[in-house]
Design a protein that fits this description.
This is Multidrug export protein MepA. 83% of the residues lie in helices and 0% in strands. It has 463 residues and is mostly helical.
């Protein structure tokens, strides 16, 4: 195995060193989120699962705020690393931590104050209102941990320790699973138990990441914070497309919930909850590929080596094709097994609804990866406008338009087929933007010699 790895090109080896821990981290995050759903669906019931799904847009929103700072600062840090500007790296890192901590405290206070209004806005029904509020209240208390932990996990990779980030996520996942068992099954606290387990797991991840950055091995260090409006503005502008991608998950769930409540009722929400847990695994895989690429694309952009970052994009797209086909095959060949993880087959109505929905919804798995990766690629190159257009199309405008148009025409199938339509339209637009960029920025690879890798002493890439 080592001989096979050493036979690969330097850029391919770097890509794999970042890809494996990045995707693994996203898998662990997705799987322990799914286990939350399994414990709630199996241990409490389908209406409780519907309540947790209703509350999910809030979690996606605070993660989006975290990515707004994390991806922007990560791109700026790795670009500065390519230029060996270490004071700037530490300044950007410290600014990220301070800003997210302050935002987390403010969001927590406002969310607790308007808890009832948030639950109603998210689409809580009379059957699910109390569970939605119980779940949200606890998640809100842990909001700052969610935001800082998610950001630091991205920055651990930018610091040159992608394997460490996976370790922190694994520890958080195990914490969540163990606490789920105790607080949902042994001590039946219902959705409150699931929320406590999720919140505590994020607190553990946050502490773990902070320990890394306070240790001697880290390259990034906390320094005395100083206000830098220009750096903060750049951070938010660069991170905006990735934040939109994460926030699009919230908008997607929110808009689907509104459509499903009107047409299928509370059991439809439970069925959609099952599908979204599985869709989240697919989406997080693509985001993992994206996050594995971004530090390298940004770094080689700083070194002005476009032939290297184009190679990384090619590797990312091929990886996305592999996983897309694998996920689609599993969803088509074993939908009953997947749905039965979350719901008792004796709940025949919601079980059958989930089966029908999953078979159609999963067709969109083939396309979403390309859109996520192209948006992330443009973000890493600081092509913010192009990245933002892709994110707005797939995550907002087309979801709303397709869900307004298809269900009245096709009924229930129109809901489940929506992802195929909006992902396909977005991909056409994304490929057009890429072709336009390539024409404007194309540079030939040197005629002789292999692609020049980063020097061995580069902290961002040596681990």
């Amino acid at each position: 195995m080592r001989n096979v790895f050493s036979s690969l090109s330097p850029v391919t080896r770097q890509f794999l060193r970042y890809l494996v821990p990045s995707v693994s981290a996203m898998w662990f995050f997705s799987i322990y989120t799914m286990i939350d759903g399994i414990f709630v669906g199996r241990g409490v019931g389908p209406l409780a699962l519907a309540a947790v799904n209703t509350a999910m847009p809030y979690i996606n929103t605070i993660f989006a705020v975290s990515l707004l700072a994390a991806v922007g600062s990560s791109t700026m840090i790795t670009f500065a690393m390519g230029r060996e500007e270490w004071d700037r790296c530490n300044h950007y890192f410290t600014l990220n931590v301070v800003v997210l901590t302050v935002l987390g405290v403010v969001i927590t206070g406002l969310s607790l104050l308007f808890l009832n209004e948030i639950a109603l806005f998210l689409g809580a029904t009379p059957e699910t209102m109390q569970d939605v509020k119980d779940y949200l209240r606890i998640i809100i208390i842990f909001s700052t941990f969610f935001m800082v932990a998610y950001s630091l996990e991205v920055l651990v990779k930018a610091d040159g320790f992608p394997v460490y980030s996976t370790v922190f996520v694994v520890v958080a996942a195990v914490t969540n699973i163990v606490l789920d068992y105790f607080l949902v099954i042994l001590f039946p606290l219902g959705v409150r138990g699931a929320a406590i387990a999720t919140g505590m797991s994020q607190a553990v991840a946050c502490v773990g990441c902070l320990v890394h950055f306070l240790g001697r091995k880290s390259n990034l260090k906390l320094v005395r914070p100083r206000w830098d409006w220009h750096a903060l503005k750049r951070m938010f502008v660069i991170g905006f497309p990735e934040a939109l991608t994460e926030l699009s998950a919230a908008f997607c769930i929110f808009f689907f919930n509104l459509t499903i409540v009107r047409t299928l009722g509370a059991y439809g929400l439970a069925a959609f909850g099952v599908i979204m847990y599985l869709n989240n695994l697919v989406l997080m895989t693509m985001i993992g590929i994206n996050q594995g690429m971004q530090p390298l694309v940004s770094y080689y952009n700083g070194r002005q080596e476009p032939w290297n970052f184009r190679r990384i994009l090619s590797l990312g797209n091929r990886t996305a094709v592999f996983f897309s086909l694998a996920f689609l095959a599993i969803a088509q060949l074993a939908p009953g097994f997947l749905v039965a993880l979350f719901l008792d087959p004796r709940n025949s109505e919601v079980f059958a609804l989930s089966l029908r929905g999953l078979r159609m919804f999963s067709l969109g798995f083939l396309l979403c990866g390309f859109n996520v990766i192209l948006a992330g690629y443009f973000t890493a190159l600081k092509e913010t406008l192009r990245a933002t257009v892709i994110c707005l199309l797939r995550g907002y405008l087309l979801i709303a338009l397709v869900l307004l148009a298809l269900p009245p025409l096709l009924g229930e199938p129109g809901i489940w087929m929506a992802p195929v339509v909006y992902e396909a339209i977005t991909l056409v637009a994304a490929l057009g933007l890429y072709a336009q960029y390539a024409r404007a920025h194309h540079r030939e690879k040197p005629a002789r010699g292999p692609a020049r890798p980063a020097p061995r002493g580069t902290p961002a890439l040596e681990h």
